[in-house]
Amino acid sequence: MSTDTHITPVTPVFCTIVPPHLLDALSRHGNPTVSDCARRTLERDTLERTRRSLTAAAGPRPAAAPAGEPDEPNRSIHDAGHATALPGRRVRAEGDQPGKDATVNRAYSGLGATFELFFKAYRRSSIDGRGMPLIATVHYDREYNNAFWNGDQMVFGDGDGEIFLDFTLPLDVIGHELTHGVTQHTANLNYADQSGALNESVSDVFGSLIKQYALGQTAAEADWLIGAGLLAPEVTGKALRSMKAPGTAYDDDVLGKDPQPANMKDYVRTDSDNGGVHINSGIPNRAFYLFADALGGHAWERAGQIWYDVLTGGHLGSDADFATFARLTLKAAKDRYGDGAEQEAVTKAWTQVGVTTE
């Protein structure tokens, strides 16, 4: 059912939804409640990132996928009990009825919504295309301000309640992190510089599409925000990122101003955040929004199909830059839809963000 045409060596990476630059800013805040939570989150992320790199160096563990390509998800939700051992105590298995813990129920539903979009729109069975079980852990650590994909499973913090709320609240956050797993099993984009920004952008794209699919929204109806509902009411901001208008998601006296550029002329060169992977992803994000908006209708159909074709088609190298990805979307549009509106719209979208397709 998967459209993958090749098998890419899997190199798991540790990917978080909240960028390090945001946590670093919070760690220097004058309010000790805010700064302590951010500092502990940064320390935990560093430890988990190191653990993941050691695991990757030892070789990836084979996924315990069922035989064949199942058309239904196989979900397992675990409760860490505010500790850090993974996966924790299993509290809901596939087919179990909802319990009293809303966080558990949201994680279960979010994993299901992600499976559904990839399966029904692109005939992909789970993360690896072969029915990989979907595992998630909730209530991770205490006041942990992040959610992450560690190469094997999803992990959600409860937030500190001051800046961030429960990380299972936004469906697109769940979809974003699980899409890192899809990328891991397909193009395996390096998590640094432009290829890393593409890795982040692909997760934003499909995270948004998962939410739009679940809500039945058209491109015009969607908010194109990543993490809407995650920021606490006192924070001056709408979300973590805006695909429609990068750089406008928040402007807060604690978080600072959203640093995402919307055009290559404003590309941020930095040594932090693996070369700005969470920052410069705003450029391909806006290109996808412009493309989907120009086509209209449901964005997971033509626009999402083209992005999926590029991700899984076997021609996207792990070190691809924006221009390479743009050229491949142009080729994918022509291969699937011929010379028409799709090819014209995708060319215009990349041109508008300053990325050449020639």
Write the layout of secondary structure elements.
Elements: E1 15-16, H1 20-27, H2 32-58, E2 75-79, E3 89-93, H3 102-122, E4 134-138, E5 147-149, E6 154-156, H4 171-184, H5 193-215, E7 225-226, E8 241-242, E9 251-252, E10 256-257, H6 273-276, H7 282-295, H8 302-312, H9 322-337, H10 341-352
Parallel strand pairs: 2-4, 4-6
Antiparallel strand pairs: 1-5, 2-3, 5-6, 7-8, 9-10
How would you describe what is shown here?
This protein is an alpha+beta fold and 358 residues long. It folds into two domains: 170 residues, Elastase, domain 1 (Roll); 160 residues, Neutral Protease, domain 2 (Orthogonal Bundle). The protein has ten helices and ten strands. The protein has a six-stranded mixed beta sheet, covered by helices on one side. Strand 9 and strand 10 form a beta hairpin.
Characterize the largest beta sheet: strand count, sense, and whether it forms a barrel: 6 strands, mixed
CATH topology of the largest domain: Elastase, domain 1
Residue share in helix:
40-55%
Strand ordering within the main sheet: 1-5-6-4-2-3
**Which stretches are low in confidence, meaning pLDDT under 50 for 5 or more residues running?**
1-10, 56-65
Quickly name the level 1 CATH class of the largest domain. Alpha Beta
Tell me the CATH architecture of the largest domain: Roll
Question: What is the radius of gyration computed over CA atoms, rounded to a whole number of angstroms?
Answer: 19 Å
Estimated structural class: alpha+beta
The string of secondary-structure elements, in order, is EHHEEHEEEHHEEEEHHHHH
What's the mean pLDDT score?
92
Number of strands: 10
Structural domain tally: 2
Q: Number of helical runs?
A: 10
- In whole angstroms, the N-to-C terminal distance is 33 Å
Any idea what the shape is? Answer: globular
As a percent range, the share of strand residues is 5-15%
